[in-house]
Amino acid sequence: MRLLIAAIISWFLCANSYASTTPPISYNENPGIQRSATPSLQLTGILKLKVRDIEKLTGRKLKLKEKIAFKFFQWKIRKGLRITKEEPKKNKGKTALIFGIIGLAGLITPIPIVGGLMALVGIILAMVLGYDAKKQNPDDKNAKTAIVLGWIGVGLFVVAVAIVVAVLATWSWSWG
Length: 176
Fold this sequence. Notes:
- The protein is an all-alpha fold and 176 residues long.
- It has seven helices and no strands.
- The protein has helices at 2-14, 39-48, 51-58, 64-85, 91-107, 112-136, 141-170.
- The radius of gyration is 30 Å and the shape is rod-shaped.
């Protein structure tokens, strides 16, 4: 199978076909800068080909193994192009920052159960998403701020729980 894939790849690289063309030379204002075709344009041309197009180019019908190998080759190229096109997303850092703000807002909510639950969920999500966004992009300021807000929220949450425990421990239900 590897030999067949290698043969197809070498055929694409060595065959004289009209499937991909070189861009025409254009004269621009800066003579030192020349435009060249990027390899991704040639690969996208291969991705657009169908099995029938290959059969027309070769002048013979492809065998089942060759068709499967060609589709597998196209899939591998798509997978490789998809990885190179993706850029690190900035949404995780922004989402973490929003959850950090929600967590701190939950600590000052007058309804203790709803506010405490909202603060706990917001703080945990802010820290998890913040560390994940910081791992992807160490320079993300939103992620760093979310982590700081998360730790501030953890500290304030611990202080709030300690105050509630101290108040409930000294609370007396007796009348006298």
